[in-house]
Amino acid sequence: MACTTSQTATTTATAARIGALILAGGQGQRMGGCNKGLQPLLGQPLVQHVAQALRPQVHSIAISANADLPAYQALGLPVWPDAPQWQGLGPLAGIASAAPQLPPDLDALLVVPCDTPLLPPQLAARLAQALFARPGLAAVSAATASGRHPSISLLRPALLLGLPQYLQAQQQGQGDLSLRRWLEPRGWQTVFFDDAQAFANLNDQQALQSLQQQLQSR
């Protein structure tokens, strides 16, 4: 895999090379079957808002998507679909499929969903500060008063090496393929953020329209 960057105790948050993967490979069932990442907010696709929030924070950005690929590619970012053997297995499939294509010099990978357009400007820095403070720590996730947000996590590249085997085992046993279940036994901590709205998922058209009205009234 291309993501076998060596990790050392001397890696610091300020010097770390962080890549971002925007997860846009879902089926959008609660969005009426629409491709969630391409739904417009203030005239731009949701995924573009997410990319704009991340651009000042990370060294590279890519999108994990499985449909409407030309529309995603038009945004000027790498777009990586799920590998055939993992189609339909959710966010972990997107991460595992992207791992071999990541820049080889990354110190960490930030994964975020495509429907969180209000991500805070200090997201990557705060997660990196927590991750690199402990060399043995494998992952950190954002948390708010509403709980943990495993879909917004900073991962060490070494953690991704075992993901294909994990997916295969879970497939065979019809196990839990959630990000939370994967992270829980693997050295996982959280970083608390006060602004819960910054991490709100726009899961349906009603939530999307409500946010648009809020932003237009500012």
From TrEMBL:
The keyword Coiled coil does not apply. It catalyses: Mo-molybdopterin + GTP + H(+) = Mo-molybdopterin guanine dinucleotide + diphosphate. Residues 20-173 form the MobA-like NTP transferase domain. One of its GO terms (biological process) is bis(molybdopterin guanine dinucleotide)molybdenum biosynthetic process. It is found in: Cytoplasm. Mg(2+) binds at residue 115. GO terms for cellular component: cytoplasm. InterPro entries: MobA-like_NTP_Trfase, Molybde_CF_guanTrfase, Nucleotide-diphossugar_trans. GTP binds at residues 23-25, 36, 82, 115. GO terms for molecular function: GTP binding; metal ion binding; molybdenum cofactor guanylyltransferase activity. Its cofactor is Mg(2+). Keywords: Cytoplasm, GTP-binding, Magnesium, Metal-binding, Molybdenum cofactor biosynthesis, Nucleotide-binding, Nucleotidyltransferase, Transferase. Its EC number is 2.7.7.77. Transfers a GMP moiety from GTP to Mo-molybdopterin (Mo-MPT) cofactor (Moco or molybdenum cofactor) to form Mo-molybdopterin guanine dinucleotide (Mo-MGD) cofactor. Belongs to the MobA family. Monomer. The N-terminal domain determines nucleotide recognition and specific binding, while the C-terminal domain determines the specific binding to the target protein. This is Molybdenum cofactor guanylyltransferase.
